[in-house]
Specification:
The chain is 34% helix and 21% strand. By secondary structure, it is α/β, with parallel strands linked by helices. It folds into three domains: 3-128, Methylthiotransferase, N-terminal domain (Rossmann fold), CATH 3.40.50.12160; 151-380, tm_1862 like domain (pyruvate-formate lyase- activating enzyme), CATH 3.80.30; 386-442, Nucleic acid-binding proteins (OB fold (Dihydrolipoamide Acetyltransferase, E2P), Beta Barrel), CATH 2.40.50. It binds S-adenosyl-L-homocysteine, iron/sulfur cluster (SF4) and FE3-S4 cluster.
Length: 443
């Protein structure tokens, strides 16, 4: 053990910010430690957690339960809990879970090597969960072997100031902190120079990028325009945004920038104004529909997707019907829907009018059935037409079949190609719509 490099394994739950944080952690550790593909082979296991819904938190907790058992036979194994649950629960995890060695919050990511060094060499157990308004996202340049990956994420901001009443993110990720404009563009340039073709700009609330920067001059639209200029890039995406901060400058980007993909994830949460108000979303359904109309005017081929919560405290059957009407009205290209769940720290946890699991489950089933029909009808609109598809790879079980994505973010499975490279853009004729993807042939 002393002369051999220790091994590590990272398990990730939650959103794209967490996926990206895990990527950063892996890079910070590679060099001193060696990545392995199986938990059982690892000397260090990090669980990157999500606490957005009760279920997400339970998943991480049950993995930790398994690790506890593995550690009985492997006492030297270091177990770290990182990410949003770590931030939320803080150092009390160390007393509650005696087999956990590290609790690391969302702003402490870049200290990971030093923290692990302390644990391994000085046999400490550490909780590093401080958050500070003065935190800065460091100028990070990912290591990429030239031509090895075709799409990557770039963090542009961290945290959220919106305090939607059901949401833990402002607590787990702290206040909004924008990364420096020049650091972001340097990272985008670096990635493009290494063959990355598609970049997704990441933040919990990207529309308010730049508000906290000292210069106060650069907003999200300016950032998009600058990233769009970077040589070598073929596609630009971003996620996620709250409709309340969506402004005309951003809508104009969809009209002006071909490289900006025609897809907008615009979480609505509910179709009822009274519920939106109690969620503290700060927009009405009327203003939301107007945004949808303006986005479609700016970019007629734009695919709009959303998130919906059913069974928010006090949601009546009429409120729920308003959500059903909204999805039929907007005709989303895709929608994620969730049963409301109480979260520690979120204000709605103290609201009256909680609904039973049964009512929430029954409403969710009705909504998902409706969404399924709408999405299928939307997918059918793509058949018979040609689209540019960015190749992702070959289907493992059917070697004659390839898959990739349209700019609208639809997955396309296609045939008719012999040899292709991930990241290559090709023309595909869509011949069939399925529930979660499209089928096509190479032109
Ligand atoms: N920043 C994004 C949301 C990120 S969280 C935005 O502002 O829209 C992803 C989704 O999880 C949310 O859009 C919401 O639909 C869902 N969600 C958040 N908290 C929840 C809760 N307490 N119960 C159920 N779903 C929740
Ligand atoms: Fe959560 Fe609302 Fe912030 Fe989105 S905008 S992360 S839902 S508080
Ligand atoms: Fe989950 Fe944290 Fe993302 S709570 S959704 S991992 S910001």
């Amino acid at each position: 053990m002393a002369n051999e490099r220790r091994t590590f394994f990272i398990e990730t739950f939650g959103c794209q910010m967490n996926d990206h944080d895990s990527e950063i952690m892996a890079q910070l550790l590679t060099g001193s430690y060696r990545p392995v593909l199986n938990v059982n082979d690892a000397d260090i296991v990090l669980v990157n957690t999500c606490s957005i819904r009760e279920k997400a938190e339970q998943k991480a907790m049950s993995l930790l339960g398994c690790l506890k058992i593995i550690k009985k036979d492997k006492p030297h194994m270091v177990i770290g809990i990182v990410g949003c649950v770590a931030q939320q629960e803080g150092k009390k995890i160390l007393s509650r879970l005696p087999y956990v060695d590290l609790v690391m919050g969302t702003q402490n990511l870049y200290n990971l090597p030093a923290l692990l060094g302390e644990i391994i060499h000085n046999h400490k157990r550490i909780a590093a969960v401080e958050q500070s308004a003065a935190f800065e996202i460091p100028p990070y340049l990912p290591e990429v072997d030239k031509g090895s990956v075709h799409k990557r994420f770039v963090t542009i901001m961290q945290g959220c100031n919106n305090f939607c009443t059901y949401c833990v993110v402002p607590f787990t990720r702290g206040r909004e902190i924008s990364r420096k404009f020049k650091d972001i563009i340097a990272e985008v340039r670096h990635l493009a120079a290494h063959g990355v073709r598609e970049i997704t700009l990441l933040g919990q609330n990207v529309n308010s990028y730049g508000r906290d920067l000292k210069s106060g001059q650069t907003g999200f639209a300016e950032l998009l325009r600058a990233a769009a200029e970077v040589e070598g890039l073929k596609r630009l995406r971003f996620t996620t945004s709250n409709p309340r901060d969506l402004n005309d400058e951003l809508i104009q980007c969809f009209a002006d920038l071909d490289i900006l993909c025609p897809h907008f994830h615009l979480p609505v949460q509910s179709g009822a104004n009274s519920i939106l108000k109690r969620m503290n979303r700060k927009y009405s359904i009327e203003t939301y529909l107007d945004l949808v109309r303006r986005l479609r005017a700016a970019r007629p081929d734009i695919a709009i997707t959303t998130d919906i919560i059913v069974g928010f405290p006090g949601e009546s059957e009429d409120d729920f019907q308003a959500t059903m009407n909204l999805v039929a009205n907007v005709r989303y290209h895709g929608a994620y829907s969730f049963k409301y769940s109480d979260r520690p720290q979120a204000r709605s946890t103290a609201f009256t009018g909680k609904l039973s699991e049964e009512v929430k489950g029954e409403r969710l089933a009705r909504l998902q059935k409706r969404i399924g029909q709408i999405v299928m009808a939307r997918n059918q609109e793509y058949t018979g037409k040609n689209y540019e598809v960015m190749v992702e790879g070959r289907n493992k079980s059917r070697p004659d079949q390839w898959f990739g994505r349209t700019a609208s973010n639809h997955i396309v499975n296609f045939t008719g190609a012999k040899s292709l490279q991930a990241g290559q853009i090709i023309d595909v004729k869509v011949i069939e719509a399925c529930q979660h993807s499209l089928r096509g042939i190479l032109r």
